[in-house]
Amino acid sequence: MRTLLYDEIEKFTGAIALLFTVGAIAVLLALPAKSASLVFEGLSLWAACVLPSTLPFLFFCALFTRLKAYPKIVGKLSPVAGKVFRISGAGACCGLISALSGYPVGAKTLSSLALRGEVPKEELFRTSALATTSGPAFLVGAVGAGAFQSVKAGWLLLVSHLAAVWLVCFLLRFTAKKSVSASRISAPQTQNALSESLAETVAAATLAGASIAIFYAFARLLAGTVSDGFLSAILSGIVEMTSGCKALSSVKTPLALALSAFFVTFGGVCVLVQQLAFLTPAGVKPLPFICLKALQGITAAALCFALACAFGV
Questions:
Q1: CA gap 93, 74 in Å, rounded
Q2: Ramachandran area for residue 117 (φ above 0: left; ψ -120 to 50: alpha; else beta)
Q3: What is the pLDDT of residues 85-101, one digit of tens each?
Q4: Per residue in 58-68, pLDDT tens?
Q5: Residue 156 CB-density burial (10 A; 0-12 exposed, 13-18 middle, 19+ buried)
Q6: Which residues contact 249 (CB under 8 A, 6 or more apart)?
Q7: What are phi and psi of 264, to 5 degrees?
Q8: DSSP 31-76
């Protein structure tokens, strides 16, 4: 019964994906000049705002997992991670990296470690829930201080975002076995840690830039078809979270902040594509992952709304 239902849901989502793709192609053909201009805006946004903050984290996180000290640090994290989330120390390391650096660094790190066999398959899905978060630089700086012009709003977004992610991850521990599998952690045998880390960084940064440019343009085109500003902001955020948060920032209400918390936690189509590009080859199934991020997004929105009302933001 469960398999039949899952198959039907996959067929439905496949049909939606087909309609989305065909519709996007039709829009690009109908508005080539406008589309090109918006793609350039998306690339400029990536180059000016995302790349400077993300690139160093991508490189140093890739390098970190190749250092000889890495297995010792993972060993220190294992007892706490096992008790709280029932995941290995390597998974906890991915979660910590994600919380500090944001999208898509955590997903990229998790994918690399999983493909190296350091994150057990039975823990991969739970770890993907923990290692796919935004970071303080984006939430407090770009969204809070930048879009909403309020550092306080940024901190509320960060707290509600991380609390929702960690709460759902904690609840997922009850679906796991009581014992945590021991990870095979060893320092990678490589003489080219710097060059390999740089190559990974360039590939990941390029993927992020391409997805931001494409979905930023589509979000702007989609928003332009709706006259209502609030609905336009919601449509933009579902496709590309940054444009959605920016549009919502003009509405100074707890609901607007709560919807922004949903967007940055769910990620929108743009971030989901980035994450799944890394996670799917490692073995994470797209549909359960999307449902998981939606649950975390709803939880973040509820927490953020309560905090915004309580603190008068």
A1: 7
A2: left
A3: 999 888 999 999 899 88
A4: 888 888 888 88
A5: buried
A6: 143, 147, 148, 149, 256, 260
A7: -70, -25
A8: -HHHHHHHHHHHHHHIIIIIHHHHHHHHHHHHHHTTSTTHHHHHHH
Q: Which of 125, 126, 116, 99 is nearest to 183 (CA)?
A: 116
CB atoms inside a 10 Å sphere around CB 120: 18
Q: Sign of the C-alpha dihedral, residues 275, 204, 268, 127?
A: positive
pLDDT score, position 152: 93
Dist. CA 181–CA 177, nearest whole Å? 9
Residue 196, phi then psi, degrees to nearest 5: -65, -40
Burial 205-229 (b: 16+ CB within 10 A, else e): bebbbbbbbbbbbbbbbbbeeeeee
CA distance 221 to 201: 30
Q: Amino acid identity, residue 245?
A: C
Low-confidence ranges of the chain (pLDDT < 50): 1
CA distance 245 to 285: 28
Integer Cα distance of 117 and 124 in angstroms: 11
* Residue 293 buriedness (CB in 10 A; 0-12 / 13-18 / 19+): buried
Name the residue among 262, 278, 283, 313 with its Cα closest to residue 98. 278
Contact (Cβ atoms closer than 8 angstroms) between residue 88 and residue 82: yes
Q: How far is CA 120 from the centre of its chain?
A: 21
